[in-house]
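Sharing in case it's useful to others searching the archive later.

Someone asked me privately for the predicted structure of Ribbon-helix-helix CopG family protein, so I'm posting the question and my answer publicly. Question first, with the sequence:
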Amino acid sequence: MSETVLITVRLPQGLADAAQTAATAKQVSRSNLLRIALEHFLGTVSGSSEQERRRQFSAEYLFLVADLIVQRQYPDAHDALITEAEARMEAVCAAS
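And my answer, the predicted structure tokens:
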């Protein structure tokens, strides 16, 4: 087994109780449950989890399909939609 490091963490009582309840339901130790949760969180944050990759692929595919439909069926609106999408993206990025 790989080397482990002990890390002490303080949690609000409600979160600690919820972790214990979930660990009991999953029949794992609370330590193992928190390890799994942290691995999942870090994978999601880095965008490397399988679920996140599927979500990104699906979103990109849908955007491409919509773009192709607009280009073919509504070519006059395509440039205006791209311009509006860029403006909205800038507004969202500026707000965050």
